[in-house]
Amino acid sequence: MEREQFEHLHALLDQEDHATARQVIEQGLLDAQGMEPSRRLYKEAELYGFLCDVGDESGNEDDLIRSVAFMEANESALEPLLRRSSYYYNLANAKSSLAKIRMRNKPGIRAPYDSEDTLHEAISLYWRAHIEADGDELQDEIAINLSNALTCAGRYVEAIQFLDLVLRRSPDFPQALVSRAEALRMLPVISNGGLSASLIAQIYHGFRSAIDTGTLSPSRLQYCEVQMQRALKELRGSGFGLPDLEKEVRETRTEYLALSEQRRFSVDHFLTLNEHAIYCPCSAAKWDHLQIGSSHLHLVGAVVPRLELLLNRIKSEYALARWMYFKSTTDAEEIVLDAKFSELFEGESLESATELLRTSYRQCYGILDKLAEGICQLYGVQTKNVYFESFWERKEVRERLAQVKNFHLNALHSIASDLNSEKGELRRFKKWRNKMEHGLFILIDREQPRMDPLGLLDDGSLVCVDLEEFKRKALHLLQLTRAA
Fold first, then answer.
1. Smallest Cα–Cα separation from 207: which of 242, 231, 186?
2. CA-CA distances (angstroms) from residue 29 to 26, 48, 50, 80, 366?
3. 384 exposure class (CB count in 10 Å sphere: 0-12, 13-18, 19+)
């Protein structure tokens, strides 16, 4: 696309002149008809990308449907012209925008199966784009849009995590600042955490920092100013003034540094079962203290106490899984395996750290399955051999849960859809776990000699994975389990 046209369209979007932008795009598509095929396709891809933005910002479903149709019809042809991350990202944007429009047209809390098509397709595409974009210039934008799609599915814990990661890399990214502030605003609505002064302060800081970038569109600027003033009013109602915010930041840092090394690791890597720690690393983040009831509440009946019993078991197992991961990355040499191994020069890592890592990974699936048991207990579903990522599709489960409109149930169903071993975008996670339990799953340490003179790794029944890649996936699985 010519630079002048490119900048003109960006300016029209910044001015929110969607009608003129749409006219420029339509004219551009007509002009592209006379071009050489590959050049025409590239220009069309750029123009449909802009049309997707116009459709998203103006709420025009037809713009988005046309963008999706173009990208899906030309996937193979676009492969030499676009990076896979760009293709998945643009298609995900269009499907995510479609899902948001359709959800706005039918407001209210939905049953878990009501938004499993367009929204889940968008999340799956964002996962693909996120994996493909590791380290490239689209990485932050993909993470922000993935987080926004996760919030639509009720997955606020993961959404805030991705936004925090973006802001660690790019502290002044306006979209990330606004999205994080919005997610924090919703957090007490969907949790038991309450609206603390620390939370309000972070909401205020997010909107204020976004305004200070000087890059917001007129409507976004106005919106952020209103939200910033709202947060400031709430802060003053809690007895806080602006000078207190700086003191709060200093005290939070001091309290964070006073946490144990292991707890700081858990906070830094998004592994705490603590609602306050989702957004603040102060002394209140010291313990995992999620619970269903409360000490001053008189409970009648057996359901909540039974679920608290299950939650105690889950918290204990998660704390151990997290400890094993922490040890595997820090001081696992303290744990000695009193065993000698045959030297086969195949490069497998056979160390205490690796065994802790593998066991941490496997334990996550036991925790997730217990969560599924808890859902069945809560809603009176009678079924056997419950597996978190697949039990949703059983007839008796679907019939019962399709009638339930619950925000958290939607989030759990979305996580399970990602992990589904048949069609989930993260299906490899369960396949690895099954191979660890029932076959040979080999972690290859690239620092060890890997000659494999006996051809052992050529056996198709083995699964061989790079150790560093597995560490990243094990951390991701721990984070998903924490969110669930």
1. 231
2. 5, 9, 12, 20, 53
3. exposed
Task: State pLDDT tens for residues 92-105.
Answer: 999 999 998 888 88
pLDDT in tens, 375-425: 999 999 988 889 999 999 999 999 999 999 998 999 999 999 999 988 889
The tokens for 458 are 């050529």
The Cβ of residue 232 has, within 10 Å, a number of other Cβ atoms equal to 20
What does DSSP say about strands 463-466 and 441-444: parallel, antiparallel, or unpaired?
parallel
Phi-psi category of 108—alpha, beta or left, where left has phi over 0 and alpha has psi -120 to 50?
Answer: left
20 neighbors 58 (Cβ within 8 angstroms): no
Note whether 66 and 94 are within 8 A (CB). Answer: no
pLDDT of residue 449: 62
Q: Tell me, letter by letter, the H, E, C secondary structure of 17-69.
A: CHHHHHHHHHHHHHHHCCCCHHHHHHHHHHHHHHHHHHHHHHCCHHHHHHHHH
Q: Quickly state the pLDDT bin for 138 (edges 50, 70, 90).
A: confident
Which tokens is 221 given? 């600027």
Average pLDDT over residues 194-204: 88
Residues ≥6 apart with Cβ < 8 Å to 169: 139, 140
Mean pLDDT of 275-284: 92
417 alpha-carbon distance from chain centroid:
13
Residue 301: φ, ψ to 5°: 95, 175
Burial letters for 100-128: b for 16+ Cβ neighbours within 10 Å, e otherwise? Answer: bbebeeeeeebbbebbbebbbbbbbbbbb
What is the CB neighbour count within 10 angstroms for residue 264? 15
Composition of the chain by helix, strand, coil, percent to 5? 70, 0, 30
Structure tokens at 238: 């809690």
Tokens of 473: 């996936």
Task: List all residues 6 or more positions away from 177 whose beta carbon is below 8 Å from its beta carbon.
Answer: 167, 206, 207, 209, 210, 213
Region at 20 (left for phi over 0; alpha for psi -120 to 50; beta for the rest): alpha
pTM, to two decimals: 0.90
- Of 127-131, 308-312, 406-410, 450-454, the range with the lowest mean pLDDT is 450-454
Dihedral Cα 23, 29, 33, 36, nearest 10 deg: 140
Contacts of 293 (CB under 8 A, 6+ apart): 299, 304, 305, 308
Contact in structure between 437 and 362 (CB atoms under 8 Å): yes
Can you tell me whether residue 443 is helix, strand or coil? strand
